[in-house]
Amino acid sequence: MKKILLTVLMMLTVFNMKAQELNNGSILEMIKLGFTDDIIIAKIKSSSCSFDTDINTLKSLKETGVSSDIIVAMLEKQSPQTKENRNGIYAEYNDSVVKIFPSSFSATRTRAFGLTSSMRSVMSGESSKNILSSDFPVFYFYFSNSDKSLLGSSPNEYALVRLTSEKGKRSVKTGDFNAFYGSDIGIDEKSICNTLVEPIDEYTFQVKPETPLMPGEYCFFYKGTIPQGGYNTLSAFDFSIPDLYRNSVKFKIGEYVWIKSGIIPAKCKVINYRRTDDGMVYILAYNNGITEERNEADCFKTRKEAKDSKNN
User: Fold this and answer.
1) What is the mean pLDDT of residues 66-89?
2) Which residue ranges form the domains of the chain, and what is each CATH number?
3) Which residues does UniProt assign to the signal peptide (predicted)?
4) Rg (CA), the chain
């Protein structure tokens, strides 16, 4: 009898949700009633949704017991838009299309160190409201003659920049000053992520990161207008890669791995990685500075693992 009543209650809950938008509370209610992840995800995909997905809310959902699969489905739920009507920058991944809405660098901050100083362009908010549920999204730049919200005429005029996030702000270094050598204005090269640009037509371009993006804050920054000298209102197309993808690679940049190399396993440092159709490939550096690429299956956490694998 209890099972029948529970089934009826669940059916009534789903029926009532058909007439309203799904929100965070709806998801928590469905979990409380015992719906499985696949049912909740199917409901998300087939419903009108209005989710709160800022970083703190995602953390709270995770702590409440909402699974990563459900959170990803919430992030991926976006209103579709035809390519003919697009302008600006879009991210595509997992059959989803997300428009990257711009934010503004609202100020500059200078830090002095004796005879030298550095300048940073500052954006309000510790994280972006544009959250991408993938560490390897593909971006599309749609330029338009009638809509100039996207400056320039090519993605080559933009830099994909990793932002520093601290104390409720995001920033990027955009200049150095020295009492003896003068000033050097421009984006810090250490913050730039390399990309591959492929033109689709005269106004449309595909842009891919060369390697998966680590969790953190990023933006596409128009290089023709580097902020300098005081208050600025420069727009940048910002987005976040959430911590859900921190474990998407086995070895992180800076870690040491053991590989099969001749008779004795060798220890190497991971300096980068990239995803291919055959899986993850790591760029490794030996102590002598020589680098080489190895598939993930050829990399091990311990010398013993590498040696035992070599002997198999």
Assistant:
1) 74
2) 2-76 (no CATH), 83-245 (no CATH), 256-311 (2.30.30)
3) 1-19
4) 24
| Share of residues in the chain with pLDDT > 90 (%) | 29
Separation between Cα atoms, residue 272 and residue 310, nearest integer Å: 24
Look-up: residue for tokens 């690679």?
249
pLDDT attached to residue 179? 63
- What span, in angstroms and rounded, lies between the C-alpha atoms of 18 and 26? 11
Q: Which pLDDT band holds residue 206 (cuts at 50, 70, 90)?
A: very high
Q: What share of the chain is helix, strand, coil (3-state, %, to 5)?
A: 25, 40, 35
Please report, for residues 53, 259, 286, 301, 307, the alpha-carbon distance to residue 304 in angstroms, rounded to integers and kept in the order given: 43, 10, 18, 9, 5
Mean pLDDT of the chain: 80
Cα 152 vs. chain centroid, distance in angstroms?
24
* C-alpha–C-alpha distance, residues 266 and 270, integer Å: 13
Yes or no: say if 126 and 166 are a contact pair by the CB < 8 Å rule. yes
- In angstroms, the CA 211 to CA 271 distance is 11
pLDDT beyond 50 at 79:
no
What tokens appear for 224 in the block? 């023709």
Contact 73, 64 (CB under 8 A): no
Alpha-carbon gap, residue 247 to 257, rounded angstroms: 16
Strand partners, 269: 256, 285
For residue range 270-280, what is the model confidence (pLDDT) as tens digits?
887 777 767 78
